[in-house]
# Entry
Amino acid sequence: MIIQLEKNITEANKDKVLSALSKNSFKIREVKTQISDYLVAIGKNEFDIRLIGNMNGVKDVHKVDDDYKLVSGKWKVKPAQIDLGDNVHIGSNGFTIMAGPCSIENENQIQGMVEFLLQNNIEIMRGGVFKPRSSPYSFRGVGIEGLKQFYRICSANKIKMITEVMEPEQIEEMYEYIDVFQVGARNSQNFNLLDALGKVDKPVMIKRGLSGTIDELLHSAEYVFSGGNEKIILCERGIRTYEKAYRNTFDINAIPVLKEKSHLPVIIDPSHGTGNRNIVEPITLAGIMAGADGAILEIHECPEKAISDGQQSLNFNEANKLFRRMEQTYDFRKQIYINALD
Amino acid sequence: MIIQLEKNITEANKDKVLSALSKNSFKIREVKTQISDYLVAIGKNEFDIRLIGNMNGVKDVHKVDDDYKLVSGKWKVKPAQIDLGDNVHIGSNGFTIMAGPCSIENENQIQGMVEFLLQNNIEIMRGGVFKPRSSPYSFRGVGIEGLKQFYRICSANKIKMITEVMEPEQIEEMYEYIDVFQVGARNSQNFNLLDALGKVDKPVMIKRGLSGTIDELLHSAEYVFSGGNEKIILCERGIRTYEKAYRNTFDINAIPVLKEKSHLPVIIDPSHGTGNRNIVEPITLAGIMAGADGAILEIHECPEKAISDGQQSLNFNEANKLFRRMEQTYDFRKQIYINALD
Amino acid sequence: MIIQLEKNITEANKDKVLSALSKNSFKIREVKTQISDYLVAIGKNEFDIRLIGNMNGVKDVHKVDDDYKLVSGKWKVKPAQIDLGDNVHIGSNGFTIMAGPCSIENENQIQGMVEFLLQNNIEIMRGGVFKPRSSPYSFRGVGIEGLKQFYRICSANKIKMITEVMEPEQIEEMYEYIDVFQVGARNSQNFNLLDALGKVDKPVMIKRGLSGTIDELLHSAEYVFSGGNEKIILCERGIRTYEKAYRNTFDINAIPVLKEKSHLPVIIDPSHGTGNRNIVEPITLAGIMAGADGAILEIHECPEKAISDGQQSLNFNEANKLFRRMEQTYDFRKQIYINALD
Amino acid sequence: MIIQLEKNITEANKDKVLSALSKNSFKIREVKTQISDYLVAIGKNEFDIRLIGNMNGVKDVHKVDDDYKLVSGKWKVKPAQIDLGDNVHIGSNGFTIMAGPCSIENENQIQGMVEFLLQNNIEIMRGGVFKPRSSPYSFRGVGIEGLKQFYRICSANKIKMITEVMEPEQIEEMYEYIDVFQVGARNSQNFNLLDALGKVDKPVMIKRGLSGTIDELLHSAEYVFSGGNEKIILCERGIRTYEKAYRNTFDINAIPVLKEKSHLPVIIDPSHGTGNRNIVEPITLAGIMAGADGAILEIHECPEKAISDGQQSLNFNEANKLFRRMEQTYDFRKQIYINALD
# Structure
């Protein structure tokens, strides 16, 4: 059960609500986010929710029979829109493209990428500065100093920035130099990191685990929301299967299922979802038709020379064509669903 | 190596070709299909293919470094078009819809379905008469008599028909009452069945195995082609993964990869690929954008009463809307790739 | 519900039983096997089974709440023992070794193998004569003539023989030259083949599918049993997973779970379950400790020269050592469970 | 390439080695562990290793063609033995049992468990104080204060203790109250945590990821070793597959494969590997026969009342019987391999 509280509820009134819930054996978690104050009540008792709904200081009450609560679509019909500031949004309306290199390499690269993005009206740049690598001997990113450089150039050009955070301790030092925190696939169930990101007032994009379930992804999002941060974006990036013809199997089913189960925006990552630049375009357009709210794409001025993930990065020419077709495809999707009630 | 022979090659000239290949330690398989005569030569010797190419009676020679040969896209750039007669085609140009119930139930049902298909300009009806079921106690189909009835009604209405064949012995009795033989997922590596279908002059649609690889699917197709039948259609129907949120995980990556590796048409089965009627529509439209040549869909006048697979069948109203959007999506795909060289 | 009938039940008495079941909306399947006559009644009605149990001609009645019935361990506590004749048995007591080459190659090979097996007191030889191969161009076995030769040598030496059958049509021609029919992993859900094997009076060993579930394997066995043949052996041979370090992932959990769910004997195939001769031994001994009733092993006089599966075949020296340790391990398992009630 | 340095190598001599490597385009990582000083040289140049081997201050040089280096079995034939102090060891010789509850609940429980372990000569207790849980609303452990209590009781009774660490920041506060750090399956590729544990002088047990590969597990161990800590234990705990009959599929193949690829000890976790107390015993004994160096088991005085994982925990009576059989099985394994060169 989710109880939305009035912002100005008195302590006395809140105590009455808490006490009514406790009497009925509900465990309660108080959640204060950027947007609202909630009580999440977990319990199995049958209960007439109007008893709570009519109490002073209570704005609304919702039964949610999913195991996750705050991220469920059952209590919030309207899709969430995540605000990145400066009139940049993700979700609800419009299609968001995030693009950039797998790894930030140097200032020249960032500069060239920013120019390319500006030419294509892309508002968000991706780029790893801390790279999770299977081997300790692989390149592990330019680190915090690279991040500052990256952010300086991006913000000077009014480009928002998303990069991966790998542990709670990094959050503070990264905070000022980042617009969206990304939780990578290998950290999708790093609960301490998710807890810590719940205390932050910047958007968080959570990638599905290497072999994470839909349910686990939504529970990971619940960690962040119940920690106090409801600016959450979900990301489908392919799953691990027996098939060796591609790096990952992009799970297209996940898109409509996540959109149905949750009010959070869903971004696709066809670069990791395929691991193969030759099929990034058809999978991206497919993902748009399946209902995605945006896409994050690996691009590189010269994929053959990329420090990491060159085989799945598009060059500027390929990216340019794809961006145009993505826009057309999104417009087409909107158009065929205009006036449709389904 | 694939050697295409002239239809009128003399025995003497053919012997010369065979002998040249044998001398170079190639194992040879002679293949005569509806369209052409081939020699498939398997071997590892380095070889100047012009030596063969210039021999009398040889039309063309192609090196193919895939393990499968005749179904490879390496020797045949132009996509195959499968002719079902009466101007009905699958592949190469145009998008094909096959629709109908999971199982044929009775004459009334067929009649109602045929009318619905005619109203929607659908030229091919699906419907199982032999049903592979995990349990021996489940409904196992109306059998051969049902098939005759099914075919009679369909052909009277100029509707082509596809149904599943389960063993070599059934081919002969089914032959006159069928337009396309379907090989089901559980028989995707039933090599005796594939061999037998290689000797038939009707199209064969091969579904990918429950956890079949891309490579295995193409090898299964190679069985049919090398047996003498090149009227082959590939079908992506979802794979088995750890994810329990849906019956199968529809493998959208398979579409562009199969189209790249092979010249055969690729049909999608979003009904089995999702197991969930609520997401059949977005996955179907996604599959079109990813490059599919057609789709096979389970529909039922009243899915709630279907003998099998009701949970993944669309009702007529849903199907009607989807058909319209499929057409629009296919047109849109064609349009954005017009004048594109990529 | 399973109703065991007296062998001499009168038609009149049987009709009374059938009618009592029908009145309660049960669907009934009559099953006559080598051992007993059964009625399998499928239905959801609550029902006092004593009503049936007390009727004339009824030997016993059992409620079975699994979806599979006759193969369930719920109605038959005592493990089945499969009789191969000449005092050779599988299951219930004692450990069975089947060994031999992946493919029968020639008479010399069979002769050498038979001698080796005799020296090691192995009573059952394996060897494929019809080989399911992914590619149509691979060696596909010596066929029926090879089988006859194989059988002649084996029976002259009192060695029982198991080989794979690939389609219903082959059963009759193979029948006289075989002791156990093997259903391969790719045919584990070839329901027509399973149906046909239900009508045969020779034991059938069913391998789990490439990515078959426990439940599917038991249902496949139910096909054979409900067809009239209760001489069934289950075989765990590894499953397909994401892990590339071995050909298959041997599913050791399946052994105790199958033994608990069913009364049928469970044979392990560590050769396919690993695909790697270096680890065949530890996995075989592990499988014995987990409760297996026997093992089927690929061995070859010279694995490096084997036509197929050389990489997972043991040579005679390795096999000899392993056989000795298998015997010791089985004796050890028996000993630690003597006097144990668990 | 791994270069073992003499402990007392002079800076001048080391510089000569480094310079010889650099000239040949090797990237070098210096590693100082509790036991030795190493240079790990990564590069592709062909190189006569004797050139390095003969230099002053160099103890030994080894070519290692695996991607992981220090954890590879290629340079170190003798299995590692991890020293926990007070004459408690893991690996090389002898079989180690770690047992205890999934979660530490209270002092009484610890006290009862310690007594039970002492009676059974078990030297290491497991017990979670920080619990990674899919849902933020589940019990998440008693935390650091519980750990202190846990450690106090254990060390008073000369019982060593293993518990899970979830983030780098926790290491310092846990350090004094722990004997072995456990990295859980969800953190198996938390590279920052692995890096941090490389700087610690206490043993680290790394669990394989939920769908981690053998290769990834060894690379995760390489993080810790190359960070400076070579007290590493590997743990097979089951993988995620399509099979729903059990929580995880215990990967028995992993045991001999890990033992072959690495010199590190391999511990099995049959509780998580099955998720089902009914089959914990056969899988444990199987794992011993497959070559495991030890096992970690969930036990609980009253599994029905356990806060977490009750369905896979053994009660004291079951555990007591199992411990006895484990000992017998390990003795049996030793005995059948005595005098064996294989």
